[in-house]
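so my prof wants the structure for this chain in the tokens format not the other one, which i didnt know existed until like an hour ago. anyway here's the sequence
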Amino acid sequence: MAAARPGWPLPGSSALLVCDLQERFRGSVAAFPQIVAVAARLLQGCRILGVPALVTEQRPEVLGRTVPELGAQDLPRVPKSAFSMAGAAAPLLGDPKIRSVLLCGIEAHACVLQTALELLARGLEVHVAADAVSSRSQVERALALARMRQAGAYLSTCESLLLLLLRDSAHPKFRQVS
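here's what i got, hopefully its the right format
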């Protein structure tokens, strides 16, 4: 296994958290179809590379279930009422191998931000897939991303994160992921 480097997630020590991509947000969150498509690509790449993933649902009895086009039907979908995903993801994050978390979903200024801040406070590296994060307001999204960066999170894109996990075009799973 390659040595750990700050800002460089490794498949064996990373986890993916997908935040609240639920039916009720479909009509109100900016660029929702694109956000879901990019999150689905990130999820699929993580599956191929063996990165464990978890999906949360914010009060599913009110906001509905995870949208099917995410392709997460086989994953644990953990209901929550807290904005941060950290409590809901405790079983996954309790694994001592996990040192970095890839984060995507909605809403940037609420659940994604509070999750990032809590994970950073716990000493985990946080990698936000900015092209798979949104809010109802683009001002809220922009300020939340800025706040996460100020707090120490790494902002990236889905493709960049997948390439960081792969490290090399000679990786045996490069074609499947790219």
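also thought this was worth mentioning. The chain is about 40% helix and 20% strand.
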